[in-house]
Amino acid sequence: MFSHWDGAFRMCPNRSKSASQPEDDFNCHSDLSEALSRTRPSWNEYFMLMAKLCATRSTCYSRPVGAVIARDKRILATGYNGAPPGSWHCTDRQECFWREPQNQIPGIEPRDLSRAIHAEMNAVAYAARYGIHINGSTLYCTLSPCVHCFKTLISAGIVEVYFEHIYDFNDRGGDKALLAYYEQYADLIQVKQLSISETSLEIAGRFLQWITSSRRHEHYS
Q: Residues 4-39: pLDDT tens digits?
């Protein structure tokens, strides 16, 4: 339930008005919409929220990841992790291909057999396929880039990365090693962790859950 941010906010118990529903309850979404003018997400939060939505399309059985490439406050490309376009999805077969013993090849690191293309790589590939210029842009990703993706981002001209969750790829301090790895390229690309505020998450959640474009002011015709 909403707390007080310069005014009272109420939960919407139903999606549409009924004869027995109080008028105050029906207007609660309009109260929320009005709050947007005072509590809009920052641009960084806005793009990270978009990245989180991209992750809903993920077909990776291990974990969902979404990415957005933006420049000058405009989205240039998006991506999510999963198998190459046109091939079968690991989520459909409910298996992580490289983890299955029968799919492993002696002498090859099992992770190198992964069928998934990482979200940030898919975003870069999309831009390349359609001739979208991404030099000097910023990447927003729900997971910090692996070392392979990170080097590609630098080569593609990405100058800034915001991630939500650190890539915890092992239980032996791999996340700290990854952050240290980024540091050696600090003169080429900046990497920062971003946490979306509870307020922005709450408002975004309501806009997704209820009808987004109801009138802000009930007295407007």
A: 333 333 334 444 444 444 444 435 555 655 666 677
Concerning whether 120 is annotated as a catalytic residue, the answer is: yes
Distance of CA 78 to the CA centre of its chain: 9
**Single pTM value for the model:** 0.79
Q: What span, in angstroms and rounded, lies between the C-alpha atoms of 54 and 73?
A: 18
* Residue with tokens 């109080």, as numbered in its chain: 22
d(CA 112, CA 116): 10
* DSSP codes joined into one string, 69-116: EEETTEEEEEEE-BSPTTSPPHHHHT--GGGSGGG--TTS-GGGG--P
**What is the arrangement of strands in the sheet containing 190-193, beginning at the earlier edge strand?**
74-80, 66-71, 138-143, 160-165, 190-193
Q: Is 30 helix (H, G, I), strand (E, B) or coil?
A: helix
How many angstroms separate the Cα of 39 from the Cα of each of 33, 153, 194, 195? 10, 32, 18, 16
With vertex at residue 177, the alpha carbon angle to CA 172 and CA 178, rounded to the nearest 5 degrees, is: 115
Is residue 203 within 8 Å of 35, Cβ to Cβ? Answer: yes
Q: Which of 45, 120, 164, 202 is labelled catalytic?
A: 120
Describe the chain by its helix, strand, coil percentages, rounded to 5. 40, 15, 45
**211/26: higher pLDDT:** 211
